[in-house]
Amino acid sequence: MTEKVITRRGFIKLGIVAGLAVAASATIGLPVYEKLFLKQVPPEKIKAIKERIRRGGVQVKYTACVMCAAECALEVWVKDGRVVRIYGNPHLTYNSGGAACAKAVSGLQLQYSPYRIQYPLKRVGERGEGKFIRISWDQAIDEIAKKLVEIKKKYGPEALLTDTGDVTDRDQYWRLTFAFGSPNAVEHGAICDTPRRHGPKLIVNGKRWEPDILRPVPVRMPDGSIQWYNKHDAKLIIYVGWNPFTATRIVWENIGTVRAKAENGCKVYVIDPGFSNTATLADKWFPIRAGTDADLFAAMLRYILEHDNPQDPNRQYINYEVIEKYVEGWSEFLEAFKSWWDKIDPVTGKKYFTLEWAEARTGLPREDIEKLAHEFGVMKPAALIWGMQSPGHHYNGYVASILGCVLNIITGNFEIPGGVIDTEIVKSSKGGTATGKQFNKRKVKRIINGVEVEAEQEKLHYAWYGDWPAAWDDVVGDLPRMIMEGITLKYGPFRGHKYPIAAYILRTGNTLVTAGPVYKFIEAFMAKNPDGTYKLELFVYIDTIFLESGLYADYVLPEASYLERMSLSDIYPTHPIIFLRDAVVEPLFEAKKPTEIMNMLAKKIYEYEMKEFGRSDIDPKEFWEKYKTEEDFVNEMLQVAPGRPNVGRPLPFPNQPEGYILYGTPESLDEGRVVIDHEKKVVRGEPVTVEYLRKHYGGTMWPMSWYRYREWDAEKNDWKSGGIITTKTKKLELKFHKYETYNKLVEEAGVIPLSWKVLGWEKLPLTFYWFETVWNYYTNPEYAKYREEYPFQLICARVHHAMSGTQMCEWLAQTPAEGLWIPLSEQFELKMAETIPGGKEIVNVAKSLPKNTWCIGTAQINRVDAEKYGIKTGDLIVLENPLGRKAVAKAYVCETVRPGVIRIGFATGGRFSPGLGGTYYHRLYTPNHSELVDYKLSPIMGQPCFADMIVKVRKTTIEEAVNMLPEYYRIQFRIEGVGTI
Amino acid sequence: MVELAESRFIKLQEELPRLFNRWIEKKSANPRWVMVIDLTRCVGCYSCQASCKMENGVPYEYFRTHVEVIERGTYPNVRRVFLPRLCNHCDNPSCVPVCPVGATYKREDGIVVVDYERCIGCGYCVQACPYGARYSNPETGTVDKCDYCLHKLSDGEVPACVSNCMGGARIFGDVNDPESPVSKVLSSKAVATLKPETGNDPRVYYVGLEEATKIGPGEAIVINPKVGGVIRT
Amino acid sequence: MSEEENLPNLSEKEYISLLLFRAQIYSILRNIFLFEPSREYLNNLLQDRFLNKIIEVYPEKCLRDSASDFLEAVMEILRGGENALIDTWAEYTRLFIGPGPPATPPYESLWIDEHEARRYKGEAWLKVRDWLLDEGLILESQTILEDHAGIEFEYMMVSTIKAVEMLEKNDRTGFINILIKQKKFLEEHLITWIIKLCDAIEQKSHSSFYKSFARFTKYFIKEDEDLLKQILNNL
User: Fold this and answer.
1) pTM (2 decimals)?
2) Which of A161, A232, A883, C12 could be bridged to A260 by S-S, CB 3.0 to 4.6 A?
3) Are the Cβ atoms of C55 and A1 closer than 8 angstroms?
4) In terms of domains, do A878 and A898 share one?
5) Sorting pLDDT into bands at 50, 70 and 90, what band is A64?
6) ipTM > 0.90?
7) Interface contact C181, partner A, CB < 8 A
8) Mean of the pLDDT values across residues C30-45?
9) Chain C residues with CB inside 8 Å of A40's CB?
10) Which residue of B has its CA nearest to A228?
């Protein structure tokens, strides 16, 4: 080795390196068998990887909750195929700018619950025994399809009633039902609060009136830009029987109320027999008697009419311009209303609708009623909002609903900033042809009394042409009678036609517990023919969780949870917003998505029908050939978004014709990439798709505007009524033209529905009407005889749950609420969904929980009442109604409920399905409200009267309680696969 | 098809988290993290309580944060107040000096933390805290407490209890930054702290605390999910 | 160690030569750290005469000497037959893999001073990984991490080749930028720990192959820091 000392330059100049492998490629000096570890990737991929790393190897996805009816927009984090975090989606405004309540977060415990249904089950033994065996999907689908076709052959397809229960993303099941040939598809709406929605439907063809407190909203600026309008305008909100802080259904009312008060000095009044959580923030709590909302509204209206004075600034209650231009039938309504003013009410001895009369009825001091009436009249903008529990659950809820609308309208608060918005007629449409309603237009033939009749399939509807001609939201509360007696059509072209309800598919619903008296439903599901077979020949239960109704099913099918399936969120904002429910993880166990279940059943039915009939009502091109994935289905549902007219001010799309219905993405509408049909008055932009929504943080929106009930008429150079109002006259109709169709139907048949007859009606009145509620001795003389023995009004209220399917979620058992859901449990053992250190994932463990660590349903009672009976908090009491039905509860004694009222939490107690996890263990000493409900359905819509009941109370012991409750509480059910992880 | 990155609607959506204080925008050189709980905005939803469990793996029986419900008054003049509680990240914490192994300390940025590697699980600090903010976790054999979701803070995100709060009652930020949400609240509203008489100098502030804890006529009914049952005082 | 002589301006061809030279060395460093040497590879090292050239003419004595020792060790292994090769592999495993804690784990995180960071996937690993991402590079491996010495050397190698490509395309700015980044990487990462690692290998290894290799690596890293400094001064 020589020691040549040369310079570096020299070294290089020697061309040493030049002589070596000079290929400027990545193979320098590389042994043949190795390749590079580092890979060059494009910038977008780096960006995505960085984002994932930033969140610890987590994928961020956007979806929609289902833990309550609010269906908030969620941001979920997924790691290794499991959901690890649930937050609100901060890129959409619907839920308080990205908030997520305890229910949303506890969704993790539903998703990973040990009580999920793991595989298909088939009943062995009798219904209600809870004995099931595991079967395969193939076997389940095969047997169900075969049975359905059998039933179709025997009775016709209309013998199938599909009930898609409490969760709204149900279009696949409706489509299947309609295609099969049955128009009988119903959902939870039928038992929710139909009287509450009644006024809005009649008057504006709408549904839900909410205060204009969704903020921020996107509005069009004069310069063409769109900006967030984040200011609150409301000055007064009156919540009657409505509790947004706990019953979070219209979730933005939660923070909206807080902010309106804090930022705009908005006054909030809460009118409720119970001191709800919303009342904690209110300026005043008016502890009204249960079931007297209509009375309050009538008195407010009379007061406003009698004291309005356009000349006095302190009495300018009524907006005459609105009435004159945009309201139909006001003078008749006024006349009908006033016709009661001189009549004496037999119950109170006072003239109807006066302050004294209302004081006697509602139990509120007349000064308070006067205050409410005056302030609502003079403070603007104001919103009078009425609720689901009340008046929605009262026999005469319609009266309150109509009066509530009238009050908002005549005071000029409808559709103004800070006033009242009908969210149904401004929200984005969805569903379209995917829902399959077009199949109901098929012409079908039936032989009735030897004569062949042909008409549209929908005329076979079990309720609209059965006993409930005006029940446009269907009737589920009457199912027990319908199963026992069968359906006889009384109206329409098919009148005289008879068929049983032979098949019942119940999806994500729990009618046994949520649709009326439990024992009535059990009786119907258990009813047998003389030959020993069940009257209801087929009962299929489809859900992710095993609720009480499942105990009576013949087949139980596990459906993918809300985190495992794709659909659209069903929301009620004040302007069109739409967001996606995305399948963020794969279904656990053998759960299947609704689109798969629909396709599997459709195919099998098709096969059996081809075999049996040589033809099928199921067209493969309308099912599995068309919808290969759930994305295909949802894309079709999105075709009709937003489907609302370009109206209001500021005009949402000034570059598009006013009044035309808009379809398509906001970008395409904004930028004019549209096709305009001047004949149909429709503007079609680029359709919203699943991909589009994913690129928009899960959801999108179209601009907000107000005064949407009017359009600018260029010819007349004036405003005209219309826009979002799609009633017959395009006006706000206080002459109820909507009833005319039903009256005609009834007249043609010459049969008056029983529920109308009871009211003394031969037809539905086309203007103001009044009738009393039931089980209420303060307002209805028929019940005076019960007053002494049954001194308590029984009402149901809400806790931090929703529907009846979340009560197994453990974190929600630590959310005490309103005296109804209190940690007074006995010590018990359970399997639970539990987090692990670091919150890495949810696992299933067995634990023993000490006394008082789990919230249970209690009966809330005022201290003054409790003292009379010697009842203290924690004492076991029994509630008994005049029908002899009983429920047991631990008492919660307090000051926060009106004396003479007992309040129970909905679905909080007496939960007798093991699928309810921890809550199941406390069924013997917690109250099931549905045990005490009467089989009483309100007229017109057939809504169960959940809030009309009276009870008596006494102390009891656990031994006595156990014996007085029905048997199904005492059985320890063990369901195959449920809770066996 | 327009470049969606230029969509004005997406831009609007991207403004929202800022509008709602979901992210920690600016970090000053020496941040001091502080929380303000506005009791006039708390709707009693328990989201904070549950979100914290989800975020930090807190077992069922224990709580890093919880909400108490206090009912006062006589029908019909009644009040119900929700009182969210958590570690107060005191400036003079009584939990720190009692630790025999020095596993707990107050950071520069104000957060009182536990070094889980050092902690031996003796539980002295649990007893020393006048607020009952700590607990012994049987799974890990160490104590545990609120750390303002440090793992999220380093990503510029607020703690889980803050982002999921329904009423916007939990306000979090850097008190050394005059533009932060906490600074704005502290400079515009009257605040108070819990148990100032302990001398711990707690740094979680409450708006509307006096109103909430006012001793009025009649007894108070308190429901605390941490303790269970119904307590009458 | 470095000579006082400054590097004068070079022609484009000369820059390319220099870059390729550096890439070639980094390739060797990368290979020896990442893999047990195969017989084939060792033969290649001998036959392509690259190391010989360095031994003959490279200005730096330390580099010449350590390269010479290294080549000697390679020849010894090749002469020693199967057993010698297997012993080398065993030594590789003992130094860098295990079982139990390896004698000289080749991960930057474990050699940085701050006591909290002294673990796998520590602060240093995070920084290297983010550095690579910023360069558009991801590591495809289930078994090793970004702050493995071999990966850091692979990075230097591929970025040097990229710099050659830039020059060939006449992208002078791109070429300079890469060199700036490389200098930064050397200073913030390689220099801070490779020397420590190599000293430890020299101390703990029984094999002259790895001892000499460690020395060679150490000296080259220092040399490259210098080289880059001087190139950039001229540009």
Assistant:
1) 0.84
2) A232
3) yes
4) yes
5) very high
6) yes
7) no
8) 91
9) 136-137
10) B12
